[in-house]
Amino acid sequence: SPAPIKPTPTPAPRQALSQPSEPRLTPSLIDPAMTGHLQGTVLDRNGNSVEGAVIFVSSGLEGLVFAPPQTPVELTASAQGFTPALVVAQSGQPLSARSTDGHLHTVVATNEGATRFNVPLLSHGEPTALPAQDLPASLTLHCNVHPGSEEANGHLLILPHPFFTRTDPTGHFTLRGVPTGKLQLTALFADGERREATVDLRAGGELTVEGLERP
Q1: Could you give the CA distance from residue 86 to residue 114 in angstroms, rounded to a whole number?
Q2: Largest Cα–Cα distance in the chain?
């Protein structure tokens, strides 16, 4: 009679290698009494108010740590491109994107010629999470599904603090609770142009910023 067939031993399942997680920095304790408010109005060269300009503190807060909000920042993709054209988020804040025209799109983020992520957005329109860790301060966004189309590129600005806003229809902006000191304030416009102003914010002060007119 033939020899009995020995059962093949089942290999033990592989265990995933655990990736060391980066320690989270403790947010800085900021005394509210040592903060102030910044406000101003952005106009163009003809004196007309500029709506939608991004105003943010670009220098002067180094060394401070701010906890990122957990509310996702969402952008949408369609045949016209990305909306909003300029997306602003805080470091570590969740990011998501979705298609709004029933077609497949991708979010390809590049910085200095290097691709940082390439994420597909399915046609059904459900939001897709985007990588939000270890991103450079400025990224260009484009879709590579429809080359040669009229889809406009987008831009993603990552800031290490929450002190940014957009001008309202009258061109006005306000930033509250900003830590005091010598600060550089930047106005970034949709076409990539920017203006900068340096201020010295005192404790409890409300400072009107000038010099951010649209070039």
Answers
A1: 19
A2: 102
CA distance 208 to 185: 12
Q: How far apart are CA 116 and CA 125, in angstroms?
A: 23
Cα angle vertex 53, ends 48, 54, to 5°?
Answer: 155
pTM for this entry: 0.82
- The radius of gyration of the chain's CA atoms, rounded to the nearest angstrom, is 23
User: Each residue of 27-37: pLDDT tens digit?
Assistant: 999 999 999 99
- Count of other CB atoms within 10 angstroms of residue 49: 16
Read off the pLDDT of residues 51-97 as tens digits, 9 standing for 90 and up: 999 999 999 999 899 999 999 999 999 999 999 999 999 999 999 99
Burial of 104 (0-12, 13-18, 19+ CB in 10 A): middle
The one-letter amino acid at 124: H
CA–CA separation, 77 and 109 (whole Å): 13
**Band of pLDDT at residue 19, cut at 50, 70 and 90:** very low
| 3 state DSSP class of 33 | helix
